[in-house]
Amino acid sequence: MRKRWQAGVVAIAALGLGIGAVVHTQGASAASFPSATGTVKLTASKPVSGTLDGGLKRYQGSGALGSESQDEGQDPLFVLADGATLKNVIIGSPAADGVHCLGSCTISNVWWENVGEDAATFKGGSSARYAVTGGGAKSADDKVFQHNGGGTVTISGFQVSDFGKLYRSCGNCKTQYKRAVVVKNVTVTAPGKSLVGINTNYGDTATLSGITIVGDSKKKISICDRFTGNKTGAEPTKTGSGADGTYCKYTSANLTYK
Fold first, then answer.
1. Tens of pLDDT along 143-154?
2. Distance between CA 13 and CA 111 in Å, rounded?
3. Can you list the positions of beta strands (E) in 81-218?
């Protein structure tokens, strides 16, 4: 049974802006998710080119997209073309394989209430740029963001709780890239396993700043894990954790524990 996160406060959609204005309560485990303005059920992946503004409706899978499993190879709810933007969307359960970005994309104010296989997978080429701004995710048994293609993922103003990994550079894809991730102004609420995982043998880098970690007084959540990746499909080898100034770029000053 997937663990459920209990909201402490209510998020209100900002009038006229179409953006969730999240109200924070001092001492709460995490800020609340916005309330859905309606529900849309998807039985097949929805392609997005240009901009799709969901108006904070809840999108969830049905039929062929009705699985809550962690099985690999599921279809996503949304497929974003190169340059597309998905914004003001709540992804409910079942979430299947969330969002796929085929090239550069922007994911703005998107909320995953219960992550399926992955929240979003980035599949563009070596020059692709993916931006995740605002929003949040909870109840991710494994990964939230999976980086299979190349380029740079920037995650900012995001919140995550009850998760396995916030970001993972693919450790065993058939085609590998030098990848980069930037994580800034993100709130992390325990339990969780790790923020980022990267492959040093391909030259990956992770740059972190403004990270607030809630409910992890024993510092069990790993900040940056380093691996030796491969192209064979084998399980990658973990080689270390923590800041090293070369691949995992951050200092203790970039982390705040509450």
1. 999 999 999 999
2. 13
3. 84-91, 99-101, 105-112, 120-122, 129-133, 136-147, 151-156, 159-169, 179-199, 205-214
Predicted confidence band of residue 64 (pLDDT cuts 50, 70, 90): confident
How would you class 219 by CB atoms within 10 Å of its CB: exposed for 0-12, middle for 13-18, buried for 19 or more? exposed
CA torsion sign, 148 to 70 to 192 to 88?
positive
Residues 6+ apart with CB under 8 A from 115: 95, 98, 137, 138, 139, 140, 141, 144, 163
Domain 40-257, classified CATH 2.160.20.10, yes or no = yes
Q: Where are the domains of the chain?
A: 40-257
Q: What 8-state DSSP symbol labels residue 213?
A: E
Distances (CA, A) of 36 to 53, 56, 69, 129, 192: 13, 6, 23, 29, 26
CA distances 58 to 46, 62, 167, 198, Å, are 14, 13, 24, 32
pLDDT digits (tens, 9 = 90+) for 203-233: 999 999 999 999 999 999 999 999 999 999 9
Instruction: Determine what percent of the chain is predicted with pLDDT higher than 70.
Output: 85
pLDDT beyond 90 at 168: yes
Residue 135 neighbours by CB distance under 10 Å? 27
Handedness of CA 49, 173, 159, 131 (dihedral sign): negative
Q: Which of 190, 136, 185, 133 is nearest to 159 (CA)?
A: 136
